Amino acid sequence: MTTIQDVPRPVRPAAAARPVAPTLPRHLLSAGDLSRAGAELILDTAERIDQAIAGREVRKLPTLRGRTVVNLFFEDSTRTRISFELAAKRLSADVINFSAKGSSVSKGESLKDTAWTLQAMGADAVVCRHSASGAPQQLSAWVDGHVVNAGDGTHEHPTQALLDAFTLRRHLGALDGRRIVVVGDVLHSRVARSNVLLLSTLGARVTLVAPPTLVPVGVDAWPADVSYDLDAALTGADAVMMLRVQRERMSGSFFPTAREYSRGYGLDERRRALLLPHSIVMHPGPMNRGMEITPGVADGANSVIVEQVANGVTVRMAVLYLLLSGEMNGGM
Amino acid sequence: MSSSVLIVGGRPYGQDVTDILVLDGEIVAIGATAASDSRAADAETVDAAGLVVLPGLVDLHTHLREPGREDAETVETGSAAAALGGYTAVFAMPNTDPTADTAGVVEQVFRLGEQAGLVDVHPIGAVTVGRKGERLAELGAMATSAAQVRVFSDDGDCVADPLLMRRALEYVKAFGGVIAQHAQEPRLTQGAQMHEGEVSARLGLTGWPAVAEEAIIARDALLAEHVGSRLHVCHLSTAGSVEVVAAAKRRGTDVTAEVTPHHLLLTDERAEGYDPVFKVNPPLRTQADIEVLRAALASGVIDIVATDHAPHASQDKETEWDNASPGMLGLQTALSVVIATMVEPGLLDWRGVARVMSEAPARIGGLTGQGRPIAAGEPANLVLVDPTARWTVRGADLASLSRNTPYEGMELPGRVVATYLRGRRTASVGLPVGAVAATAVGTAAGTGV
Fold this sequence. Notes:
heterodimer, A: 332 residues, alpha/beta, Rossmann fold, 5-stranded parallel sheet, 13 helices, 38% helix, disordered N terminus, B: alpha/beta, TIM Barrel, disordered C terminus
């Protein structure tokens, strides 16, 4: 079979030419595309941005003046959209919100036509949220601008993982050897996929905890351990990240009732106490209070959930800055 | 065009060099006497030196899209692609619009095939009305129509209701029909996008588990055995399915199975670029499955290769993976892929190719004039193949109206040089023949030779 082994593999646009910084891919599509050096560059840059802005009366940098960032949201997500919007505005970029709810098919315009429209408008960066896995990657083949995946289907959400890593680093320092427990609907979670890839790249040990029905077949290949026992996993862990569980999963028979889910996989005060004293409690939001997390824990002393939101803006500033300033002169 | 052709120096089944004399659609002489036969005097002479001669290929699984999606393919363009791929007969799946579930629609497709005149087009009838899986279509009316339908399938969907499947298997016994099942347990594959495994887990695409195919094949084989009927399994794609079919055959069940060229060559890793050209149903599986499928085709557990040629308009493919239509082109690349995956590795010789791509599919489909031996007195359905040629696949160069070939840019071995349907040349590519060394096929009846 030598004849067909040399067949060209499908080109992953993420690996395309013209890297923006030596260590970064041209587009941010998957946390798995980031090397350790690339990930650390983003996190370090976020720290510098945070310091540059701290104490300023005008919390705005002129870095991306004249550049256009398009927020292309095929799926509603007010939180993520305003986070990216604020990040771009704080870098003085022009921001256009292109909201296209539902699939492009239901709109009658194909993803490709939308891409060409953005291309014609000269978007320097396209921040894409889509209910279909892979849509940002497909988009990246059709536009010249930098594509940032703002969450695609059940695939990935790399800037969420970056802001989580940023938050973890602030509290725990370097992540080497740290034990991070990720709990919930791993099967459908883009947050879980991106975090497993990024946190393992940064040297952390990730343990996934979920009912077996919410763990994907094929998880064995992931750089993470899987456990069905939340108490055991939490004991001695440095951080826990609770994932949102959508109530509609019940109708898919992934678990019998919300109550039974909470008993087995919800984070309450008793379970939080199993964590190490310095540990932190995280949630990407929006939370189902009383389902995967009790209000007391969500608002408790170890909770960094609100801080994650603030860090999201900073980290997204770093991503946009690094992707777009590679083609520009001058720095911050 | 002359009605007699002398094919000189070809190798039937890749064996000894010989001459073949064709007159009025029939092979009239073969061997040393052919050239000296008085009837060869004014025959068009074709130099087949170095070429392998096979019986015209028969595809038991083709989507011609007409009526309803003439923007993706028509009976005529699909026939041209078939002829260029070495086929002399194709079976057209009924998932058209309207569905081919009545005598009227199957006769329309049959007539369109006759008009195109490039391959024999045999419509497959839907098992259930509208392919909805609720009640039987008029199978008998389709069987007795001018199209003489013998193969029935709801392909694209599974006849999931076990009682309906039992009834269908029983009912077609009256006229020697066969149910060709698209084996896919619907509940286990809700929203399924690709093979369920490591790659789907990573890509976040909903998995299509192998068990959803294997469970239906097992059920249907037991049903066919119980009612003493005949089952054909469409596009078998997993190692586990091979085991199930092998077990059924050992029990003496009348079951046959097909594999597609793409399932012999491509793996689920192709989904990594999210290019929907690699989205197909059943999905591309793993390398381990491929190895088992190839071995099963060689051993006869899998009876035939069928293309599942599935043209799609660009707007149905250049979209999000979730929204893209499943399916890929196959007619013009099938023989080359079989050469690459089976012949070159030594798993199948040319006799074997003739068996799995012509003789066995003709037998399963109930055709008496196709898949016949290359011998005097037999219909002159022949394909000349250059086994040493290599070519690079370009979707834009294929005869199909659509471009969704998964082999774009790939270099494949083996090239169809000419196809003859009852002595009439329906395709030729660089054929060294007296006057007409042109390319490809024409359009409607006659002009394409």
